[in-house]
Amino acid sequence: MQILLDLRQLALLADRVTAASEPSTSTSRPAQPHLESTARHLNKAFTACVADRNPSLLTSRKWATYRIVAILFRTYFRLRALPLCRNVLRALSAAPLPPLDHFPRADRVTFRYYTGLLHFLAQDYAPALQDLSEAWGECHAGAIKQQELILVPLIPLELLLRGRRPSKVLLARFPKLEALYSPFLSSLAPKPDLRRFAAALAEPSFERALVVRGTYLAVEAFRPILLRQVVRRLCAQVLKSTRVKLADVQTALSEIEAGDAAAEVEWLVGSLIARGFVKGYLSHERQMMVLSNVNAFPPLKDVAAAGSGGVVGI
């Protein structure tokens, strides 16, 4: 196994030296021919393990499968060849391997992290949350760097699908994550602040940090949840009725960033109903929203369970 790790490190070094010695002619990412070649060797090692026919399971090479998959996934992510990860997952699902929980904990955590990340980047949020939650639950308490990697997508997922904010104690353990998400989290409490949320997303440094970590779309997808909170507060604290005039919603939203036009407000409310954030229906003729008498604002986890691939359909 160490040979494969050393081979990958040598490939990275060779590509770095090659890129430094050859003047760049474009702004695109430099080619990584050595790492691409290493990926092919890693794939051969994976095939040798997953297809091992040794009748004795105790001495089978299958026990090295998930360790090699971890190196292979890391390499594919570096090459931005994510579709190749899907090929590996298909091969794993078809192979007669021992159950995943029979493998070492480190292998399980790494595998769940990468499968969760693949789901996350594909905006398949429900299975992403499940895999990343399992990785977080099994990750060693002293593995701070690994825990931080897991939390990068897990924090917005917990908010999107379960409505759970990270605790101050948790963020204090990970200052980088606190710096990354504090502009976003500050727009959620004590009450939803769409102006602050929009300003945070428009901040170039914040936007760039989220894009680099692949979490921009998940954070941006929180906007309809903020809108739902505004409508919910309006209905519960101000109107105290299941029949809500769109003009009242427009007034409430215009105070905190959202659109001025009545048609836009009607579209926003209709979108919340269509996505399952609000139970009820719209009356275009009367310019009114009629809420369900039962559970008009279902828990986010129920919205996620009813949707396909997560709360947000983008």
TrEMBL record:
GO molecular function: double-stranded DNA binding; RNA binding
Stored InterPro entries: Csn12-like, PCI_dom, WH-like_DNA-bd_sf
Domain PCI: 109-296
SMART domains the UniProt entry points to: PAM
A GO CC annotation given for this chain: transcription export complex 2
Biological process annotations from GO: poly(A)+ mRNA export from nucleus; post-transcriptional tethering of RNA polymerase II gene DNA at nuclear periphery; transcription elongation by RNA polymerase II
UniProt-listed Gene3D superfamilies: Winged helix-like DNA-binding domain superfamily/Winged helix DNA-binding domain
Membership in a protein family: Belongs to the CSN12 family.
Protein name per its UniProtKB record: PCI domain-containing protein
Protein source organism: Jaminaea rosea
